[in-house]
């Protein structure tokens, strides 16, 4: 079983930056594919970024060049560095992973981009 706890959300002005963190429990973190998703009001949840156990990354087109996903296996933490934020980035951001036992989600952290 894996527990995920996000932090780092908040209110930021357009063009600003935030770094989200997702702390994971469990002994197999190093091998887990970790995802960041987001869900804006009245919209479907969308995949934002993915990082594999070997640190290969993939991004949604809407965030390429602005967001960076990374991981620290010693801390069992995955990060999402968000820069050049836009109002349309406003959403609840969730980290997620999956194992043979199922798919796991954190509680989410709110990011609001507004002047």
How does the SSE layout of this entry go?
Blueprint: E1 4-7, E2 10-12, E3 18-24, E4 34-39, E5 46-51, E6 57-59, E7 67-72, E8 77-82, E9 91-99, E10 102-105, E11 109-113
Parallel strand pairs: 2-11
Antiparallel strand pairs: 1-3, 3-8, 4-5, 4-9, 5-6, 7-8, 9-10, 9-11
Overall description:
The chain is mainly β. It is 0% helix and 51% strand. The chain contains no helices and eleven strands. It has strands at residues 4-7, 10-12, 18-24, 34-39, 46-51, 57-59, 67-72, 77-82, 91-99, 102-105, 109-113. Strands 2, 4, 5, 6, 9, 10 and 11 form a seven-stranded mixed sheet that branches. A four-stranded antiparallel sheet has the order 1-3-8-7, with no helix packed on it. A hairpin with a 2-residue loop joins strand 9 and strand 10 (102-105). The radius of gyration is 13 Å and the shape is globular. The mean pLDDT is 96.
Features:
mainly beta; 4-stranded antiparallel sheet; 115 residues; globular; 7-stranded mixed sheet
Quick overview of this protein structure:
With 115 residues, the protein is mainly beta. The chain has strands at 4-7, 10-12, 18-24, 34-39, 46-51, 57-59, 67-72, 77-82, 91-99, 102-105, 109-113. Strand 9 and strand 10 form a beta hairpin.
* Number of helical segments with 4 or more residues: 0
Write down the overall mean pLDDT: 96
Question: Could you tell me the number of beta strands?
Answer: 11
> How are helices and strands ordered from N to C?
EEEEEEEEEEE
Q: Spans of 5+ residues with little confidence (pLDDT < 50)?
A: none
**How much of the residues is beta strand, in percent?**
over 45%
């Amino acid at each position: 079983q894996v527990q995920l706890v996000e932090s780092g959300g908040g209110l930021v002005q357009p063009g600003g930056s935030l770094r989200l963190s997702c702390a994971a429990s469990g002994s197999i973190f190093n091998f887990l594919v970790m995802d960041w998703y987001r869900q804006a009001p009245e919209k479907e949840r969308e995949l934002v970024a993915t990082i594999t156990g070997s640190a290969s990354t993939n991004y949604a087109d809407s965030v390429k060049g602005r967001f960076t996903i990374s991981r620290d296996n010693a801390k069992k933490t995955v990060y999402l560095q968000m820069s050049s934020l836009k109002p349309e980035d406003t959403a609840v951001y969730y980290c997620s992973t999956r194992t043979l036992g199922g798919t796991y989600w954190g509680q989410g952290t709110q990011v609001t981009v507004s002047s």
